[in-house]
Backbone:
């Protein structure tokens, strides 16, 4: 991988593009019934009226009117156009951080950008929770939407983080048997595990597509005062994310096919670059290069005793 793809610091695109993607995606998700009513309206009149009333009650810009005489206004269409544009820009400009896995195929870039979006979602989720705490305990004016919005965002964070974890090879794996096997046998293990990931994804999509589409098409909501469309969005998102995880698993298999055997140990959890960076920051004014780990401190105490 070229060093040009490795980030030496936080570039503005690493923050602006994921956040802009989140804003467009959030706007589009909240107004998706407008496109359903315009493009594939329910044939049943009662279902059409229910969805229309539901959208009109949640429309952020109710006075604009549809751009083409329908329900979706100019901001809805703008979000729909900008979303794939921002995705392309984000994938093309995303840079690998020094501690991230050194694999940089096109699918890897997509997964890393999904990871950046997930980080932005965590920041948004934290802001919502802090806002609710301040409003509830300082101003005694609790919101009706913060709890459900936090759950909604947390669901997307959980799902999107799975794609990033698969690309980073940071998902839970048991290496006790894997590490002692020769490389040719490890490749067989990799093929078997990838096959079961694909089998699970195919079974989940096959079994869950009908329910996910039904919840999405009728725009099923959560049934609370805020009434967000959590079932209508999370169910399809599960299928889409599982598909991305399966694709990433295949990409990992291809990328790691000729890789040298790796012996895993507890030291894998230690980021040596981060430790060196902290030592450089502390310098002579702090511990410097002294070993301040728990083991070293306990060892020195034993020697003193």
Residues:
């Amino acid at each position: 991988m070229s060093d040009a793809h490795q980030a030496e610091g936080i570039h503005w695109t690493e923050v602006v593009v994921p956040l802009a993607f989140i804003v467009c995606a959030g706007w589009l998700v909240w107004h998706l019934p407008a496109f359903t009513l315009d493009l594939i309206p329910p044939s049943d009149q009662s279902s059409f009226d229910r969805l229309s009333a539901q959208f009109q009650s949640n429309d952020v810009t109710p006075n604009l009117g549809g751009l083409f005489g329908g329900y979706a206004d100019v901001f809805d269409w703008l979000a729909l156009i900008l979303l794939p544009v921002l995705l392309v820009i984000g994938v093309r400009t995303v840079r690998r951080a020094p501690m991230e896995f050194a694999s940089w195929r096109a699918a890897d870039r997509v997964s890393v950008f999904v990871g950046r979006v997930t980080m932005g979602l965590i920041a948004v989720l934290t802001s919502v929770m802090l806002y609710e705490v301040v409003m509830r305990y300082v101003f005694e004016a609790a919101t009706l939407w913060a709890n459900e919005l936090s759950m909604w965002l947390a669901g997307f964070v959980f799902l999107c983080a799975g794609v990033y974890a698969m690309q980073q090879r940071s998902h839970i794996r048991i290496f006790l048997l894997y590490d002692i096997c020769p490389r040719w046998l490890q490749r067989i293990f990799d093929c078997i595990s990838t096959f079961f990931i694909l089998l699970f994804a195919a079974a989940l999509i096959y079994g869950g597509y009908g329910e996910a589409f039904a919840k999405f098409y009728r725009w099923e909501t959560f049934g609370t005062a805020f009434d967000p469309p959590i079932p209508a969005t999370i169910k399809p998102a599960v299928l889409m994310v599982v598909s991305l995880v399966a694709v990433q698993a295949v990409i990992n298999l291809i990328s790691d096919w000729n890789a040298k055997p790796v012996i895993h140990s507890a030291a894998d959890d230690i980021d040596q670059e981060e430790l060196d960076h902290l030592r450089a920051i502390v310098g002579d004014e702090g511990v410097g290069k002294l070993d301040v780990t728990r083991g070293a401190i306990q060892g020195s105490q034993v020697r003193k005793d």
Q: What stands out?
A: Residues 100-263 form one domain.
